[in-house]
């Protein structure tokens, strides 16, 4: 996998976690497509196999975001989903959402790899750009299935922690500005600042050949809200410790200790565009 250097190499971690979880008889998720993809890649996945915390964390976040996406689809009349930093994500296939307009965005080398396993269709297009390249939003707005009435969901999973605080703030600013005429919802994953400061202790990221590092995180929700433009509001925050507590072993008790649960695990944050005043 020499074509994946730096942050792109990290896409192999969730692929492996979903695959290993699928092997369990009572797994949190079932994702045979991820198993098939992993089996065809020439990479030493064994170095991830012993990290139970990463496997549980990614499985829980996958399950949780699946639930949030399903809810969005049920409520939206004209849904359009944008998957930022898609990697080798299989959500569209796993949830049988082939009839929903869906855009997958990632850097060119990742999209090139993705095309080995997924093909573009009329309802699913790939955008080979960085999330910080604002022109990707022009690609969205010129897509034949885009409409001024589209209800947009943006998924940012396993991505923000690799960018600087200023870059994350810039991302939220231009997304909100560009899609200010839409009903916009975002589902984003964040780590804590404590975790961002100690990437070298992460059980799987620290084992990647290219050694990418975490940069952005937050310990308290008000710290995250500070970087959002006033046009966006947080509607909910979910610690991964709050779900499947039996799989977290002794760490499951941390769900009762807010100070620790938001510092020692990742969070899924749901954000909405504020309604415009008439």
From TrEMBL:
Quote one Gene Ontology molecular function term: methyltransferase activity
What's a single GO BP term from this record? methylation
Alphabetized, the UniProt keywords read:
Methyltransferase, Transferase
Which spans of this chain does the record mark as coiled coil?
Answer: none
The answer, when asked if Methyltransferase is one of the entry's keywords, is yes
Q: InterPro entries from the xrefs? A: Ppm1/Ppm2/Tcmp (IPR007213), SAM-dependent_MTases_sf (IPR029063), TcmP-like (IPR016874)
Q: Does the keyword rRNA-binding apply?
A: no
| A Pfam family this chain is assigned to | LCM
| Name this protein carries in UniProt | Class I SAM-dependent methyltransferase
What is the scientific name of the source organism?
A: Staphylococcus pettenkoferi
């Amino acid at each position: 996998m020499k074509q994946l250097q730096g942050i792109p190499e990290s896409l192999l971690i969730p692929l492996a976690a979903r695959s290993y979880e699928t092997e369990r008889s009572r797994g949190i998720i079932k994702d045979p497509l991820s198993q098939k993809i992993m089996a065809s890649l020439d990479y030493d996945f064994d170095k991830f196999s012993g990290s139970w915390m990463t496997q549980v964390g990614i499985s829980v976040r996958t399950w949780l975001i699946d639930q949030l996406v399903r809810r969005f689809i049920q409520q939206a009349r004209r849904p359009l989903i944008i998957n930022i930093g898609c990697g080798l994500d299989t959500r569209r296939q796993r949830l049988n959402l082939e009839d929903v307009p869906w855009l997958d965005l990632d850097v060119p080398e990742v999209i090139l790899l993705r095309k080995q396993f997924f093909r573009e269709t009329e309802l699913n297009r790939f955008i080979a750009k960085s999330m910080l390249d604002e022109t990707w939003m022009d690609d969205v707005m010129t897509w034949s299935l885009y409409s001024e009435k589209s209800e947009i969901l943006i998924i940012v999973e396993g991505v923000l922690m690799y960018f600087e605080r200023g870059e994350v703030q810039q991302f939220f600013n231009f997304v909100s500005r560009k899609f200010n005429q839409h009903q916009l919802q975002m589902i984003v994953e964040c780590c804590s600042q404590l975790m961002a400061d100690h990437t070298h202790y992460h059980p799987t990221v620290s084992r990647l050949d290219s050694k990418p590092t975490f940069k952005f995180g937050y310990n308290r929700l008000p710290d995250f809200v500070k970087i959002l433009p006033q046009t966006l509001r947080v509607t909910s925050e979910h610690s991964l410790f709050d779900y499947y507590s039996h799989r977290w072993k002794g760490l499951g008790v941390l769900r009762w200790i807010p100070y620790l649960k938001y510092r020692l695990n990742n969070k899924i944050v749901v954000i909405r565009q504020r309604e415009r005043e008439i």
